[in-house]
Design goal:
- Helices cover about 35% and strands about 20% of the residues.
- With about 775 residues, it is an alpha+beta fold.
- The chain folds into five domains: about 90 residues, Zinc/RING finger domain, C3HC4 (zinc finger) (Herpes Virus-1), CATH 3.30.40; about 90 residues, 2-Layer Sandwich (Double Stranded RNA Binding Domain), CATH 3.30.160; about 130 residues; about 100 residues, Immunoglobulins (Immunoglobulin-like), CATH 2.60.40; about 170 residues, SPRY domain (Jelly Rolls, Sandwich), CATH 2.60.120.
- The strands form eight sheets. Strands 21-22-33-24-29-30-31-34 form an eight-stranded antiparallel beta sheet, with helices on one face. Strands 23-32-25-26-27-28 form a six-stranded antiparallel beta sheet, with no helix packed on it.
- A hairpin with a 5-residue loop joins strand 21 and strand 22.
- Helix 7 packs across helix 12, helix 12 packs across helix 13 and helix 14 runs antiparallel to helix 15.
- The longest helix has about 100 residues.
- It is flat, with a radius of gyration of 56 Å.
- Pfam families: ANCHR-like_BBOX, COS, fn3, SPRY, zf-B_box, zf-RING_UBOX.
- Belongs to the TRIM/RBCC family.
- Its main location: cytoplasm.
- It comes from Betta splendens.
Length: about 775
């Protein structure tokens, strides 16, 4: 039955033939499908009536139409009768193919039609059997199987309630009531979902509705599928391999893709899926066919998208964590704010009570004093009033004898009272009025108005121009904008290894030295390595937290040294400070030691230090000497021959008017000024280089690239006049700049140094 059904299927609509036309090539086509082909050829300049021919979609045979058009073609009555019988047979039992297709969800429409067209066009097959072969292809079976597995996976991992929540309610699209009833079936032919009542009303059990395919309710967007961009209302059902584009059947039959190679959607889907998901499981032929630009682009985009999604998820998780932390910190700070404000209010309340008590006590004391003064004044007033009354009565006395008897006594009392009037009248203290008392809380109010939450101080700034250094100390100076809010500083430092990622360097806490609880804006670090770069951070700290300064790179000065008398040739005279050496032809009495320069012409001396790390700079004042050799050597370098004649020493030398560098007996001429009076020597042990400079003219002369294996000692040889050394100097700016440029050039050129004491590279820069 399935084979018969495929033979009765139209190659355009993939439905059972309806009103089939018998084409001259013996193939058949639905009348409506043939009409759609003619309509697709129409344009404003070419109406439908003017179209006189079209191609058979199965065999590409050109069918010529007469003046009647499609009506002039014969109807395939026999085929229509067979279809009618097939439909009646399919309705006789529930297990028939048609009934099964009506009761089960329809296979993807795009996969069906693309399989049909792909079998016709790509495979090159003819006739109606092409659709059958495509429909039963393994790709289709695999695709259906994958959908079944996916459905089983969903059912296995979700309870029925969850699945029910995942599937949206599909309403009847034919109901006139509001809201519409829930759909029970979806007609694939009508592309409409019906409830039970509307389905019985619109789809009676008679032709042509018996050929309509009914499936379980599905959303409208699922049943309609994607439509073609060029042909309105036409569904995409195949894939153009040339343009990497979804197309419909009309695009292949009469459109611009007619000559292009196409594939069914199922086949294309399986190939891309196999290439992306399991490339190791498919054959080489399938792999080669699937490695198209679209697949690679899709794979790359998918990989980038997955990576981007992962990054976004991580970022979102961090943001969510920060949000949670913000919530926690905010709640904590709000509680702390309430607590602190309550404490302030309590302090104000207590102080209010204390001050009120003091005011009351002062009031009582002052009123007591004033009451005493009032009583004294009243007593004095009573006495004075009684004396005045007595005196007035005496003056009124007319009896001479009585007046004379009392007048003298009254007069004395009045005189005494008048003389002591200042004593009788008590003093009044104006301070007792309490008018010199004031409550002034203006300062406290300003402080309260300035209440705010405390933040971590701004990062301090290290002042490089104020920092100083010696060969074993560095004094770091810094400034802070929030100096008054900083409770202390913390200084951190470590040896600079050339790592430019300061964050990674800072996170490696094991290598950092920490000086805590610094109260000043400067600190001197002792016990550092000489000629070594250090990284410094300053941390400003208060109760709210801390912030770090930008890193600063500071360098200790070079290792100071002097000439070692034990190594000086017997025909060399050293100054008392061992900083100057002079050629003296008179043989001096000196004991022979293994480290002393000896031999004819080896008039040399070495420094009193061996250097095995850091970057060190010293200068040699050449004076009038025109024959000398200055450089470094291992302790094992022979003392009975010129420096540079062996593999353990490297020197810059002048022989009258010729300047050269020498190592392991090999010499190379270099250019230098005849007025060279001050030679700068830079030994960068950590970066394996020895450089010479004209210090007065700030010019680079030459650089040795050396893989140091042992500690080295400065060496000096002269054959006339004298030289003087200046050691423990900071590296000049012009030397530091040249050295940095040389290191960058070496890194860019990828110079490889040999693990041996031999000279690996000589170069001269001017």
């Amino acid at each position: 039955m399935e084979t018969l059904e495929s033979e009765l299927t139209c190659p355009i609509c993939l439905e059972l033939f309806e009103d089939p036309l018998l084409l001259p090539c013996a193939h058949s086509l639905c009348f409506n499908c043939a009409h759609r082909i003619l309509v697709s050829h129409c344009s404003t300049s070419k109406p439908l009536e003017s179209i006189s021919a079209f191609q058979c979609p199965t065999c590409r045979y050109v069918i010529t139409l007469n003046h009647r058009g499609l009506e002039g073609l014969k109807r395939n009555v026999t085929l229509q009768n067979i279809i009618d019988r097939f439909q009646k047979a399919s309705l006789s039992g529930p297990n028939s193919p048609t009934e099964s297709r009506r009761l089960q969800p329809q296979r993807p429409y795009t996969a069906t039609i693309s399989s049909t067209i792909a079998g016709t066009v790509v495979g090159g097959g003819g006739g109606g059997t092409s659709g059958s072969s495509a429909r039963g292809s393994p790709a289709t079976s695999s695709h259906s199987h994958s959908h079944a597995n996916h459905a089983n996976h969903i059912n296995a991992n979700h309870s029925p309630s969850v699945v029910a929540k995942m599937e949206p309610r599909i309403s009847c699209q034919f109901c006139e009531q509001d809201p519409p009833r829930e759909a029970v079936k979806t007609c694939v032919t009508c592309e409409v979902s019906y409830c039970d009542r509307c389905l019985r009303a619109t789809h009676p059990n008679k032709k042509p509705f018996t050929s309509h395919r009914l499936v379980e309710p599905v959303p409208d967007t699922h049943i309609r599928g994607l439509t073609c961009l060029e042909h309105e209302n036409e569904k995409v059902n195949m894939y153009c391999l040339v343009d990497d584009q979804l197309i419909c059947a009309l695009c292949k039959l009469v459109g611009r893709h007619r000559e292009h190679q196409v594939s069914s959607l199922t086949e294309r889907f399986d190939k891309l899926k196999a290439y992306q998901v399991s490339p190791g499981r498919v054959s080489d032929a399938v792999m080669e066919a699937s490695k198209t630009s679209a697949a690679q682009t899709l794979e790359n985009n998918l990989t980038n998208l997955v990576k981007r999604n992962s990054e976004l998820e991580n970022q979102m998780a961090k943001l969510i964590q920060i949000c949670q932390q913000v919530e926690v910190n905010t709640a904590m700070h709000e509680a702390k704010l309430v607590e602190e404000c309550d404490e302030l209010v309590e302090i104000i309340r207590q102080r209010k009570q204390v001050i009120a008590v003091k005011i009351k006590e002062s009031k009582v004391m002052k009123l007591r004093k004033l009451a005493q003064q009032i009583a004294n004044c009243r007593q004095c007033l009573e006495r004075s009033s009684a004396l005045i009354t007595q005196a007035e009565q005496s003056l009124k006395e007319n009896d001479h004898a009585r007046f004379l008897q009392t007048a003298r006594n009254v007069a004395e009392r009045v005189a005494m009272a008048t003389a002591s009037s200042q004593v009788l009248i008590p003093d009044v203290n104006l301070n007792e009025a309490f008018d010199n008392f004031a409550l002034d809380f203006s300062r406290e109010k300003k402080i309260l108005e300035g209440l705010d939450y405390l933040t971590a101080p701004n990062p301090p700034s290290i002042r490089d121009e104020l920092c100083t250094a010696s060969h074993d100390t560095i004094t770091v100076h810094w400034t802070s904008e929030d100096e008054f809010s900083v409770t202390s500083y913390e200084l951190q430092y470590t040896i600079y290894t050339g790592q430019t990622n300061f964050i990674s360097l800072y996170n490696s806490a094991d290598s950092w030295m920490i000086v805590p609880n610094i109260k000043q804006n400067h600190y001197t670090v002792h016990g550092l390595q000489s000629g070594t770069r250090y990284i410094f951070f300053v941390k400003a700290i208060n109760q709210a937290g801390s912030r770090n300064s930008e890193p600063a790179r500071l360098k200790t000065n070079s290792q100071p040294f002097k000439l070692d008398p034990k190594t000086a040739h017997k025909k060399l005279r050293l100054s008392n400070d061992c900083l100057t050496m002079e050629k003296d032809e008179s043989s001096l009495k000196k004991s022979h030691t293994p480290e002393r320069f000896s031999g004819t012409g080896s008039y040399g001396a070495a420094g009193n230090v061996f250097i095995d790390s850091g970057c060190h700079y010293w200068e040699v004042l050449l004076g009038a000497s025109t024959w000398y050799a200055i450089g470094v050597a291992y302790k094992s370098a022979p003392k009975n021959e010129w420096s540079g004649k062996n593999s353990s020493s490297w020197v810059f030398s002048r022989c009258n008017n010729n300047f050269m560098v020498r190592h392991d007996g090999k010499e190379m001429l270099v250019e230098a000024s005849l007025q060279l009076r001050r030679l700068g020597v830079l030994l960068d042990y950590d970066n394996n280089s020895l450089s010479f400079y004209d210090a007065m003219n700030s010019q680079h002369i030459h650089t040795f690239e050396i893989s140091f294996l042992l500690p080295v000692v400065p060496t000096f040889m002269i054959w006339n006049k004298s030289v003087m050394i200046l050691s423990g100097l900071p590296v000049p700016d012009f030397v530091d700049g040249v050295a940095t440029d040389l290191q960058e050039q070496q890194q860019q050129m990828g110079l490889c140094r040999q693990e041996s004491p031999y000279l690996t590279g000589m170069k001269s820069c001017h």
